[in-house]
């Protein structure tokens, strides 16, 4: 059982607002005083919030509230009824993660607003938490007369950003979900974006807008209204209202990470701290691991998910992959296409899938028995084709089967257009079409995670709803896809450009672990299509893109061709006690230092864009008084992703200690990886 370590008690003070001071602005500051929040009622009796940092206005007065489908909006006619202030300083332990311990140090302001009777007389509370590296706030609608069920058409949550700057973002609400290239534009050129959306202001300040604890609510898109004023807009629903909730309830937190530089942005734990503690108790049954899989050949088209002569998931092939995993210390083998339902047009349909019946050429029990004897787990697969009506009807039995057979992790999938989720209807036998990140799909993902936890199964959804830190509350929610992953490299030359992964570090990865599936050491997709990567970059991905389950995605025959690179993949941990970005710039490059949770070893590495560069890395993070042997994998002389020189890799072994520095050359599309082994 992971435990909570209190460092300071939370102090709470409640202050009623008198008639005289009800409209007076309220302020609260972060623990270090650098971030100051102001709450006010404007001339139209609308609640507003604004934010400054180090004396500079970041967010100008911005409105708060809701548009409802069945009543007057919760927007005007408000006064501040009362205020509560609190503070917290605790330290909690992650069962797995980028770092073992997380500090939650914040100041809190709870503001209770009440509408006058002319506008409905409703109550609306807003809770703000200010950290030294950002702010989060959420609405809390309490029980109240005349409002038992909230039918929310949209939010009126505004973010009026003052300084000019640059934004990195993907479009919200498009058919391909989150699987897009990130655009780099001026802030005032953004349209509607998914979150996280990252910004670098002209003075170098970094911001990232996102949300935390997305539970039973619609996902938030970040919509520009005019200039640099944005508003939260919610993913649609087939029911009309985008959210329907009985009172009392809390919304997700709307979050802003704020830092002086890229490292401060990446190392923030703001969203994790805004989620509830672990609800599952002891989750030691999940072990972070590396895995291989019957997958890359299917993505490339060499094998098929459907039954027939090219079927990928056969008993014979799976046992061969299990043997490879056992020989090289991989914890799992992913098998896709093992179950019935793949033979027809399953994309966006999924009506024929069975999650308990195997194809004739795949013996599920024999395979799991064989894996168990070899000390390997089968990683299960549940592709739904976006049909959650079919999946939910089988969910309990499917997870029970995996639990009984020792399948400890399942990769789920929702391959469908953005608005193509088939959900159970209001009456038996009917269905509804929902958005992939609408309230109904958010409910579904949590149902899957909770059901899986009953049978000690961890969940890794692809085509998911974005991560909002819920892995803290449900630690069996171990990773997600939710971005343009390695699979695109199977479908065309340079399908993911060289700056794609250095952008993911500062955008998608701010939300949580990603199952990117690195480790294509052959650097080839279908028909020998080249990757926009050097071989050293494939190793650097294991440090740049965090996940507690990391794949070596290439064919096992290709992995064996590169024994030195395979050695690094085998030893690199999937669980860390500390993680730091030691060099990086948004969209350009990212070099991390991460410390193994189970030893004194450190690992250093990361990825580069299309521009060759030389970095000076300083080993200030090492433990003082210790000597380390650094085994280095780096781009060879003249390497570039553009030619066959992408295969050039160099190796070096040196001794280092705290305070030493190292000059590292990164090729176009390159990267590096190092293991710093502590002397015994």
Would you mind describing this structure in some detail?
The chain is α+β, with helices and mostly antiparallel strands and 680 residues long. Among the domains are: 4-273, Beta-galactosidase, Chain A, domain 5; 495-680, TIM Barrel, CATH 3.20.20. 15% of the residues lie in helices and 37% in strands. The chain contains 11 helices and 38 strands. Strands 1, 7, 8, 9, 10, 13, 14, 16, 17, 21 and 22 form an 11-stranded antiparallel sheet that branches. An 8-stranded antiparallel sheet has the order 2-3-4-5-12-19-18-15, with no helix packed on it. Strands 29-26-25-24-23-30 form a 6-stranded parallel sheet. A hairpin with a 3-residue loop joins strand 31 (576-585) and strand 32. Helix 6 runs parallel beside helix 7. The longest helix has 18 residues, at 388-405. It is globular, with a radius of gyration of 25 Å. The model is unreliable at 1-12 and 17-22 (pLDDT under 50).
Compute the number of helices: 11
Largest sheet: 11 strands, antiparallel
Mean pLDDT: 95
Q: Would you identify the CATH architecture of the domain at 4-273?
A: Distorted Sandwich
Unreliable segments (pLDDT under 50, ≥5 consecutive)? 1-12, 17-22
> Which percent band covers the strand fraction?
35-45%
The total count of strands amounts to 38
CATH topology of the domain at 4-273: Beta-galactosidase, Chain A, domain 5
Anisotropy-based shape: globular
Structural category is alpha+beta
> How far from one another are the termini?
30 Å
Helicity, as a percent range = 10-25%
Please state the CA-atom Rg, rounded to the nearest Å. Answer: 25 Å
| CATH domain class of the domain at 4-273 | Mainly Beta
